[in-house]
Amino acid sequence: MTNERAASCAFTGHRESKLPWGSDENDPRCLRLKRYMFDAVEALYLEEGVRHFICGMASGTDLYFCEAVLALRAERPGVTVEAAIPCEGQAARWSPALRRRYDRLVMECDRRTLVSRDYTPDCMLRRNRYMVDRSRFLIAYYRGVSGGTRSTIRYAQQQGLDLIYLPVEDRV
């Protein structure tokens, strides 16, 4: 394992449509999840020497994760965040407010990696594997539903990553 990979962590989680609170980020469960994310990245920084965090930049929990790492970067030296973007038009169909948030976060990242110029049926899968292949840790917010989060976790397990599951709270 390279030194850079040993000090790297990726994230996988659900989009808004699979979250019990949808897009209501003021919901207490969402606020707690954001706190759990920050605590998890700070613990990896302090206890494991992780300095590089990779985010897939999807709507929902990916953007929360990116914001948590940017908050950590503001407090701790040496933290970098990489936007692993599956294709150029990833946010093209999002609401204007969500696109602005996405654009701002992408610009705040230290590194931006475009996995595929154009959308392809497998560009999200390739983005997820890119993140796993460059990380020692995977933080996951997983509610037990099928989709990209489940397949990313399975791939990370096959690759021997250390998995950190964030608590799932369905009750307010």
Topology of this structure?
Layout (H helix, E strand, L loop, with lengths): L2 H4 L1 E5 L15 H21 L3 E4 L5 H15 L4 E6 L10 H13 L2 E4 L8 H11 L3 E4 L7 H11 L3 E4 L7
Parallel strand pairs: 1-2, 1-5, 2-3, 3-4, 5-6
Helix pairs in contact: 2-3, 5-6
Overall description:
This protein is of the alpha/beta class and 172 residues long. It has a single domain, classed as Rossmann fold, CATH 3.40.50. 44% of the residues lie in helices and 16% in strands. The protein is built from six helices and six strands. The protein has helices spanning 3-6, 28-48, 61-75, 96-108, 123-133, 148-158; strands at residues 8-12, 52-55, 80-85, 111-114, 137-140, 162-165. It has a six-stranded parallel sheet with strand order 4-3-2-1-5-6, sandwiched between helices. Helix 2 crosses helix 3 (61-75) and helix 5 runs parallel beside helix 6 (148-158). The radius of gyration is 15 Å and the shape is globular.
Major beta sheet, strand line-up: 4-3-2-1-5-6
Q: Quick one: biggest sheet?
A: 6 strands, parallel
Low-confidence stretches: none
Compute the number of strand runs: 6
The CATH level-2 architecture is identified as: 3-Layer(aba) Sandwich
Determine the CATH topology.
Answer: Rossmann fold
Quote the beta fraction.
Answer: 15-25%
What share of residues is helical?
Answer: 40-55%
Radius of gyration: 15 Å
Globally, the shape reads: globular
Order of helices and strands: HEHEHEHEHEHE
Summed over residues and divided by their number, the pLDDT gives a mean of 96
CATH class: Alpha Beta
Short overview:
With 172 residues, the protein is of the alpha/beta class. Helix content is 44%, strand content 16%.
